[in-house]
Design a protein that fits this description.
Bound molecules: iron/sulfur cluster
Number of strands: 0
Distance between the termini: 41 Å
Helix content: 55-70%
Radius of gyration: 19 Å
Length: 218
C-alpha cells in the first residue's frame, strides 16, 4: 500500500519535483506520509481510550451521574476541538510552513490534517507568549483526564491514561519533534543546521526569521 498522500505543492519556495532528491526531505516532514500521522497519533489514542473507558466505568460503578459522565467526556472534546481549530491554529500552526502553502484553505500536515486555516500566515517565529499558551493547552489535553480519573479513584484507567501520555510524549520528543518544520514550537528539536538549510529554500520565512534575530550558519 502506498502510504504517501496525493501530490501537493512543496512547503518551501522550490518546485515539488525537487523534493525527491532534496536531502532535507529525510530530515523534515516535508512530504506528508500516513505512517508519520499514525505514529504521531498512537499515544493520543491510548490516552483518549483510557479516559473514556474510565469515565464510563465510574458511571457503571455509580460513582458519578449520567450528566457528569456526558459532561466530562463532551467537555474534553469541546476543549480539544476548540484548542486545535481556534487557539492552536493561531499561536502554533499559523507560523508553520504548512500554513504558508496559501493555495490551500485546510491543513495537509501529518498532525492536524483537515483543520481549516482561520488566520493569515505568520512566517516569523512564535513569540514567548504563544509558546507558553501552547504548552498550557497541551498540558490541559494531557492533564484533564488524569485529574478526573484520580478523583474518581479509577486507578486502572488512570494508569492506561498516564501510559498514553508518556507514550505520546516519548514519540513526540524522539520521532516527531526532531523532524517537524514548525521550528519555533517550544517542543521542536530540529538541529540548527537543518533549520538553516531549510530557510535557504524558503525566502519568505528566512526574511522573517532574520528580522526576528535568527543567525544563518555558514
Ligand atoms: S526543503 Fe523544500 S524542496 Fe526540500 S524536501 Fe522540503 S519542501 Fe521539498
Ligand atoms: S505540522 Fe504541526 S504546527 Fe504545522 S500545521 Fe501541522 S499541526 Fe500545525
Amino acid at each position: 500500500m502506498n502510504n504517501t498522500a496525493p501530490e501537493l505543492p512543496s512547503i518551501c519556495n522550490r518546485p515539488v519535483a525537487e523534493c525527491k532528491d532534496c536531502t532535507i526531505n529525510e530530515e523534515l516532514f516535508c512530504t506528508l506520509s500516513w505512517k508519520d500521522s499514525l505514529k504521531f497519533g498512537i499515544g493520543f489514542v491510548v490516552l483518549i481510550t483510557g479516559m473514556i473507558w474510565g469515565i464510563i466505568h465510574a458511571y457503571n460503578e455509580l460513582k458519578i451521574s449520567k450528566f457528569a459522565e456526558i459532561a466530562i467526556i463532551l467537555g474534553y472534546f469541546i476543549f480539544l476541538f476548540g484548542f486545535l481549530q481556534l487557539w492552536e491554529n493561531r499561536i502554533l500552526c499559523s507560523h508553520c510552513p504548512y500554513y504558508g502553502r496559501e493555495e490551500e484553505s485546510v491543513l495537509h500536515c501529518y498532525a492536524n490534517f483537515g483543520l481549516r486555516k482561520l488566520y493569515k500566515y505568520h512566517p516569523e517565529p512564535m513569540s514567548k507568549s504563544e509558546q507558553i499558551q501552547f504548552l498550557i493547552g497541551v498540558g490541559v489535553i494531557m492533564g484533564y483526564p488524569i485529574v478526573f480519573l484520580a478523583v474518581f479513584k479509577e486507578y486502572l484507567f488512570l494508569t492506561i491514561t498516564i501510559a498514553g501520555d508518556l507514550l505520546w510524549l516519548i514519540i513526540l520528543l524522539t520521532q516527531t519533534c526532531p523532524r517537524c518544520p514548525n521550528f519555533s514550537c517550544p517542543l521542536n528539536r530540529v538541529p540548527k543546521k537543518t533549520i538553516t538549510a531549510y530557510l535557504r529554500k524558503n525566502d519568505r520565512m528566512r526574511e522573517a526569521w532574520l528580522k526576528a534575530g535568527w543567525k544563518m550558519e555558514e
